[in-house]
Write a structure and sequence with these properties.
Aldehyde Dehydrogenase, Chain A, domain 1; 2 domains; 7-stranded mixed sheet; 6-stranded mixed sheet; globular; binds nicotinamide-adenine-dinucleotide
Length: about 500
């Protein structure tokens, strides 16, 4: 923490349409996990900055043009914003790469998805239908989806701009104003996005960004502010629970997208090439730092050995290197603190009775794609979210056993299953206690579909009309059409 200027680029809060320092002038460095050196300085917010951001968002909602303008006008501005995101894709992508070590080849996908999130929700808000109900009593009722108000969006570091846009885009499209708090490990792309929103002509105070930490800092202050109307959070389940309690004090509705301990079921009849390649993507892409990662790979016994041989070979073939090199497939973990956490699971795997088939600690803050087998049923590796490139492969015999193993977790975000048997695919999908099932694939998203988790993985759903339900206050208007006796009530 410092208030002494350096020669590194500086990224401020964006409050009320202006990029600003913290009220007390404090800054913090953003560390590049590949070089393990600071590469940018960022405004370090405190409660006063959170308060200023909510004040700006409140004023923009209560008095500004954004909630009052037509959907088509908002749509036009959000598309202009998406155009600018695409035009500045390299700058945004490199910011996320430098902040968290995600390979540029993968970040390109995040830039495209970020722009698409704004385009999709801009159009969705225009096209989404509201119900009109003709009533027997000679009246009709219709629904108005009115913006909820000031939305606080609190984001994690694993898909910085993409997950931020997943919240900010529907909130803005439905006429709300937003205060975004990015994760402290990945602050930079949020400031760049907010600069671009101003350039696109989005009015001041509509999209605010405030940087800082969670507990006793900006994050906590935002969740305790009674002027806020919605809180949307993505991050750890433990944090979600804390935020939920803070929001409950002021009866603020929350949407929580949280952790996962997801299973990847490979049945004996699966197309093995397809199963191996998606399973590798699922657990090793983004160095395993994906909430949806299929970290428990359950393989039916007749193909267990063959799957394992191919899976280990594919894991060992992944290219490690500088995340800014387009050929790199995996880089360091996002921060030293996170590296130490994942390393702890790798270091203890054999102590608790398991075996490391491949992988282990790599250079710098990296963990090589790691495959564990023979993990005892009560090992923490099998029930806790590791959030790193660590796959645990286990055999199973029957469909019932696979479903029981997959459901034996307090989480319930997603599952993948690989089979060529159509009936089995439908049957098992229905039995898995999760928010999403991917059959013969992984991480294919349609923004109209519900997204979220059950149990400790989530509260609520976002996507398409599910986002509309969260970011609006639906209002019923009942109107008399034909003269009807006054006693036709209720
Ligand atoms: P985290 O919970 O540590 O932090 C997330 C955000 O919450 C950060 O911006 C942080 O500053 C803020 N925060 C922390 N404590 C707070 C508090 N008391 N009040 C207000 N804000 C607070 O999570 P993380 O380490 O950044 O992200 C990794 C986690 O996110 C993993 O568990 C992963 O599974 C989960 N995740 C879930 C999804 C999903 O869609 N379900 C997607 C991505 C990541």
């Amino acid at each position: 923490m410092t208030d002494v200027p350096t020669d590194r680029p500086f990224f401020g809060h964006v409050i009320g349409g202006k990029e600003v320092e913290s009220a007390d002038g404090q800054r913090f460095p953003s560390i590049n996990p590949w070089t393990r050196e600071p590469w940018a300085d960022v405004a370090l917010g405190a409660a006063a900055d959170a308060e200023a951001a909510v004040t700006a968002a409140r004023a923009a909602f209560d008095e500004g043009p954004w909630p009052r303008m037509g959907y088509a006008e908002r749509q036009k501005l959000l598309h202009r914003f998406a155009d600018l995101i695409e035009a500045h894709g390299d700058e945004l992508g490199e910011a996320d790469t430098r902040d968290m070590g995600k390979p540029v080849a993968q970040v390109r996908h995040d830039v495209a998805r970020t722009a698409w999130n704004f385009r999709f929700f801009a159009d969705h808000a225009v096209m989404a239908m509201a119900e009109t109900l003709p009533m027997d009593s000679g009246h009709h009722a219709y629904t108005r989806y009115e913006p909820a108000g000031v939305v606080v969006a609190i984001a994690p570091w694993n898909f910085p701009m993409m997950l931020e846009s997943w919240k900010v885009a529907p909130a803005l499209a439905w006429g709300n104003t937003v205060v975004l708090k990015p994760a402290e490990d990945t602050p930079v792309s949020a400031t760049i996005m907010a600069r671009l929103a101003i350039e696109a002509g989005i009015p001041e105070g509509v999209f605010n960004v405030v940087h800082g930490y969670g507990p006793d800092s900006v994050g906590e202050a935002l969740t305790r502010d009674p002027r806020v109307d919605r809180i949307t959070f993505t991050g750890e389940s433990r944090t979600g629970s804390i935020i939920s309690k803070a929001a409950a004090e002021n009866l603020i509705p929350v949407s929580l997208e949280m952790g996962g301990k997801n299973s990847n079921l490979v049945f004996a009849d699966a197309d093995l090439d397809n199963a191996v390649s998606w399973s590798i993507q699922s657990i090793f892409r983004n160095a395993g730092q994906i909430c949806l990662s299929g970290s428990r790979v359950l393989v039916q016994r007749p193909i267990y050995e063959e799957f394992l041989t191919r899976f280990v070979a594919a894991a060992e073939a992944m290219r490690f290197g500088d995340p800014l090199d387009p050929a790199t497939e995996f880089g360091p973990l996002a921060s030293q603190e996170h590296f130490e956490k994942v390393k702890g699971y790798v270091d203890t795997a054999e102590e608790v009775g398991g075996r490391i088939l491949t992988g282990g600690v790599g250079d710098g803050w990296s963990i090589r794609p790691t495959v564990l087998v023979d993990m005892p049923a009560d090992s923490p590796h099998l029930c806790e979210e590791i959030f790193g490139p660590v796959a645990i492969v286990e055999p199973f015999d029957t469909e019932d056993e696979a479903v029981a193993l997959a459901n034996d977790t307090p989480y319930g975000l997603d599952a993948q299953l690989f089979t060529e048997d159509l009936h089995q695919a439908h049957r098992v999908s229905a039995r898995l206690r999760v928010g999403t099932v991917w059959v013969n694939c992984f991480f294919i998203r349609d923004l109209r579909a519900p997204f979220g988790g059950v149990g400790h993985s989530g509260v609520g759903r976002e996507g398409g009309t599910f986002s509309r339900e969260f970011f609006t206050e639906p209002k019923a208007v009942v109107m008399q059409i034909n003269a009807a006796p006054a006693d036709r009530q209720g």
